[in-house]
Amino acid sequence: MDGKQHQALVTPGGDASIKDIIVNLFGARFEKGTILDIIQQEPDESVCALYGISDHLKFDDIRITGYISSCVHGHGRSTADRQFVYFNKRPVDYAKLCRIANEVYQQYNRGQYCMLILFVDVPPGMFF
């Protein structure tokens, strides 16, 4: 066309899962078995103390889902370039949240960063 090489981006259509789309976008290295579902759990007292969280009632209205790469060595990345956070279906740049994910990930896979796709749904008007 204009002398430059272009790469066609093709994703599965229809009823493809988000995991299928991740594998197609990021390559075979992220096979379905190496991508883990993020399951929401309310933090215990020690986690709340560590991160300075005092109001536990806020967690009742927040829904967290997503995907993260396995902690097995070789499934991480050398950079934090594949970390995506969405609040109420809108992309945001939330460095603190990515830093927390990387700190936990590096407890199990030192020197590598996780592939992270995180969806956070909060009620309209809820502020942190």
Summarize the topology.
Blueprint: H1 18-26, E1 35-38, H2 45-51, E2 63-69, E3 83-87, E4 90-92, H3 95-106, E5 116-121
Parallel strand pairs: 3-5
Antiparallel strand pairs: 1-2, 2-5, 3-4
Question: Describe it for me?
Answer:
The protein has 128 residues and is α+β, with helices and mostly antiparallel strands. The chain has a domain at 35-121: Ribosomal Protein S5, domain 2. It is 22% helix and 20% strand. It is built from 3 helices and 5 strands; from the N terminus they run H-E-H-E-E-E-H-E. It has helices at 18-26, 45-51, 95-106; strands spanning 35-38, 63-69, 83-87, 90-92, 116-121. Strands 1-2-5-3-4 form a 5-stranded mixed β-sheet, covered by helices on one side. A hairpin with a 2-residue loop joins strand 3 (83-87) and strand 4 (90-92). It is globular, with a radius of gyration of 17 Å. The N and C termini lie far apart (48 Å). 13% of the residues are buried. The model has no long low-confidence stretch (mean pLDDT 81). One of its GO terms (biological process) is mismatch repair. One of its GO terms (molecular function) is ATP-dependent DNA damage sensor activity.
Strand order in space, largest sheet? 1-2-5-3-4
Radius of gyration: 17 Å
The CATH class assignment of the domain at 35-121 is Alpha Beta
Shape descriptor:
globular
If classified by CATH, what would the architecture of the domain at 35-121 be? 2-Layer Sandwich
Q: H/E order of the elements?
A: HEHEEEHE
**Main sheet makeup:** 5 strands, mixed
Helix content: 10-25%
**CATH topology annotation of the domain at 35-121:** Ribosomal Protein S5, domain 2
Distance between the termini: 48 Å
Q: Please indicate the percent range of residues in DSSP E strands (runs of 2 or more).
A: 15-25%
Helix vs. strand class: alpha+beta
Poorly predicted ranges: none
- How many helices? 3
Mean pLDDT: 81
Number of strands: 5
